[in-house]
Amino acid sequence: MTDLQPVVLSGGSGTRLWPLSREHYPKQLLPLHGQHSMLQATVLRLKSFSSPQINVLPPVVVCNEEHRFLVAEQIRQIHAAPDGILLEPQGRNTAPALTLAALHAVSRGADPVLLVMPADHVILGEDKFHLAVADALAAAEQGAVVTFGIVPTQPETGYGYIKKGASVKLRGAAGDVAKLDSFVEKPDRLRAEEYVKSGAYLWNSGMFIMKASVWLAAIEKFQPEMTRCCRDAYANGSRDKDFYRVDKAAFARCPSDSIDYAVMEKLAEPAGAGVAQAMVVPLDAGWSDVGAWPAIWEISQRDQNGNALKGDVYAINCRNTLAYSESRLVATVGLDDMIVVETADAVLVAHKDHAQDIKLVVNRLKEEQRSQHQTHRRVFRPWGSYEGIDVGDRFQVKRITVNPGAALSLQMHHHRAEHWIVVRGTARVTRGDEAVLLSENQSTYIPLGVKHRLENPGKVPLELIEVQSGSYLGEDDIVRFEDVYGRKDS
């Protein structure tokens, strides 16, 4: 029996899906198609995979340290138990992320086949995906490094392409498996049309499958410095509750590169002789990398006028338009081929043809040091979330939600006092040397400089209104004494 280890790479930022996707809450954490977030859908993608010869192991998830609690909570919500959540202290692209996952997979003496899936893809036809995985697995078991090439549905200039080589007959593979001839950069329109017409080219999906030992041998051959840094980072890492923290200093020295550039392109060249065979399996399963808002429109259910509408939206005399409302009524009139996205703190209006330029808005927000590129008005924490309601000179009002059984840190503020009013649930409040229980419509006052903690001892979410007052109301005015989540930051 073959052990198949899903590896979910959750390091993307999704700037072209602003304002819904933010640096601290990127697109893979959003339910952009269906009821689950894309991360959750990726973790569940092999749930119905069935084969008497294949044992699907719990997934390994690699994510940015900043997103660790969000990732863990979303996985918990779908009742999945990952084999590990590996934390990257900073982004180093997909090749180091996969190398960390491979080192984790072999750390207990095993050598599973790794199925590498970015957490921000949509696949509508999971049955077809499972068939392609079985074919790719047959090649991986024989030492190949396999990528999945998406069968093009149109001439696309936004994707790189893979050129197929000769087909290969493999025992256990029912579909098409081919040698990988070459990778091709994003083409212009005319060349893309030629690629699609030839039938020899596939879109580059960014999904791969190979034995852990084969990947480690290949990365050692072509990227020895990257391998050394990853080995040091993993060997000197440490477990922290649900997470494995790799060594920050060692990983900071690691070169940044993608799986394609670091290894796959070299395997397809003479330099790859004797290391591993690069192969490709065509995939025709309703795939999308959801790279920009037009892709959301394409995979969404649309009305008779081609409009994709979500939330409280009126669309009058509109065609082929995507309108998304998060917090209020959005009315669109006479729009063709437009994108309208409303969130609590930002509104985007763009033509589909200029969707790639949305990243320029994000760049400007960064340059002007505005918060809208990083966070939503609702900010998530491991204990729940808070949302800004109003702010003025020397005061701020927030809505705080604490999950059942969760607790904020024992903390103190130098520059602000706080009033808490419970509107739902039960709160256990530590204030100095006393601890009290508060129920709905009850309140308490936390003077400046007093140690305090908020907990939810109940079985329903605790909701309260917090009124802060003082000379400085920044989130960094926290002296933390105890924290069940081991945080030193926010």
Share in helix:
10-25%
Q: Which strand-content bin applies to the residues?
A: 25-35%
- Class from helix and strand fractions: alpha/beta
Q: Write down the Rg.
A: 25 Å
How many alpha or pi helices? Answer: 11
Question: Average pLDDT across residues?
Answer: 94
Unreliable spans = none
- The second-level CATH architecture of the largest domain is Alpha-Beta Complex
Gross morphology is: globular
- Distance between the amino and carboxyl termini: 45 Å
Instruction: Provide the spatial order of strands within the biggest beta sheet.
Output: 21-22-23-30-25-28
CATH superfamily assignment of the largest domain? Spore Coat Polysaccharide Biosynthesis Protein SpsA, Chain A
CATH topology of the largest domain: Spore Coat Polysaccharide Biosynthesis Protein SpsA, Chain A
Number of DSSP strands?
A: 31
How many domains would you count in the coordinates? 3
CATH class of the largest domain: Alpha Beta
Strand count, sense and barrel status of the largest sheet are:
6 strands, antiparallel
